[in-house]
Design brief:
Belongs to the PPR family. P subfamily. The protein is mainly α and 620 residues long. The chain has helices at 2-10, 18-26, 36-50, 62-77, 82-94, 101-113, 117-129, 136-148, 152-164, 171-183, 187-199, 207-219, 223-235, 242-254, 258-270, 277-289, 293-305, 312-324, 328-340, 347-359, 363-375, 382-394, 398-410, 417-429, 433-445, 452-464, 468-480, 487-499, 503-515, 522-534, 538-550, 557-569, 573-585, 592-603, 609-618. The chain contains 35 helices and no strands. The structure holds one DNA strand of 10 nucleotides.
Length: 620
Amino acid sequence: MRRAFTACFSSNAICDKGFLGFLRHGTPALTTTSSSCRVITLLRLHSLSQSPTCRNPNHTPNHLSELQQLLLEKSRVGFDEPDDALRVFDKMLRMKPLPSVMDFTQLLTALVKMKHYSVAVSVFSKMCYFSIPVNIVTYSIVINCCSHLKRVDYGFALLAAIFKRGFVPDVVTYTTLVRGLVSQDKFLEAELMFKNLLEHNQIEPDAVIFNTIINGLCKTGNTSQAMRLLRYMEKTRCMPCVVTYSTVINSLSKDRLVDDALGLLAEMSDKGIQPDVVTYSSLIQGLCNLNRWDDITQLLKDMDRHKISSNKHTYSILVDAHAKDGKVRDAEYLIELMIRRGQNPNVVTYSALMDGYCLRGELDKAFALLRTMRNEGILPNTQTYTILINGYCKKMKVDTAIHLLKEMTLKGLTPTIETYNTILDGLFRARRLDEAQKFYRKMLNQGVKLDIVTCRILLHGLCWNGLAGEAMSVLHEMESCGLVPDIRIYSILIHGLFKDGKVDEARNLLHNVRLKGLHPDFISYNIMIQGFCQEGLLEEAYKILLEMEENNCLPNEVTYNTLIRGCFKNKMYDGACVLIDEMCAHGFKADASTTSMLFDLLQSKEQDPALLAMQKKFMP
DNA sequence: TTAGGGTTAG
């Protein structure tokens, strides 16, 4: 196990196909599939390419104007298949005179609309090969494709080509690159590039490039800086727009600062900037996270008043919130409602409902929903399977979960680290230790990159199965591989050590936590109190209680209940009585386990004076 | 100037 762990953390080799490999990889085979629309398209183009050519520059040949109309239409609605676009491209190559740069860029746009970014890149490379004229717009489109494919490095290679060919990149070209950097978690580089462009007057910044940077700030957790940039925009010629506000509102909502977000909404209205469905959906999401149902109703009414219709996103947010809150019937009703209002649920909507079923343990319904999705032609994705796998694992049906993992892989879906973590946890919880360790090794062999959650599951699994010693060895391995354990990892281990009766080791680890300057949280403090109580070390448990108060981590209901039960167990009824009074004074209540313990004690025949006093107090 | 860039959901 330890060796396996080391192997995982030291193997970070990345397979890089390079630009050509990437092009080859991205080029689909020019074969198979047909649809009525495609046939019509091809017939039209066939007739276009057969028609006589016209070289009069003052007169657009009929076939070209037809092509332009077709491309315009396709760039609006997209082709049915990428193959269609490629066939159109081949016909265009053979046309005389050659269609214009704009015609070719419209073809690329159509591919981008269909999200066939790698196909668009390969079309571009063919254009270069056949010396088809290109311009800065063509380059910007292709850079955008590279950004979407998370290959901003190729985007920069294209920027070099732009300079080499004497074109001048404009604000759109640079915005695309900035966005590419942001989407590849290179925000600092994006910010630096933006600042340089401004300092050297390379661009006249517009709202879009500002919004891209603001979005980057939000994504990197700098919402307050994003807010400052919004304020800065107000002082410039390009004023913040609905997208600027929506981006910041979305980020504030995610940070649980929904009241600030609502403040911005009011500000927008004051300034005459109309919020749209994205603005409202972001706010609704924030309110859902805080279960502020009344405010959500209010916002939905506001949307109605302003004639802003909910879209798939809005409904999915609402379905998810209801499902997570256990209100699956309401979630089902919302899906019915969205269908009635002409919004078809998609994989996100159904997966959210499925999560609700799984949380309630209604696995039959969750599985039936998977079938419904398939019948409706909605393909379940990795997250759908992960939700279902999680549902089965929580119900200890790990074999079904593993079967689903195989099924998703066969369907060409790539499980994520969350999928693997879920199964690993399921195996440990089902106490199928050998299989868990085997599964873990398989994860490593397949090159799955572990995260801190995997480590927690592994350590928790070992501790849960009475192998705290082994878990400690894994911890040391983790540290030697450069992974910094957090307080949750230490809590798991301290819990495990106490569980195995290794009190001295638990104490040592606790000492290490303090030495490392980590701040224990409620959970870790409560674990320690429980551990000491279990061992009859009430004095040490009480010291932890005092430490909590000193460290501004005030004891909660769990703390008091744990300590009180510890007192009962160790026949320290006086102490229990004082703690009960203190707990009540703080507005906390005895939980089910403490109450039943107290009830049993009061029923007992024990003649302890403190117990008799308690009897008088609780059963007068 | 009929072609290119920015915000939301599980």
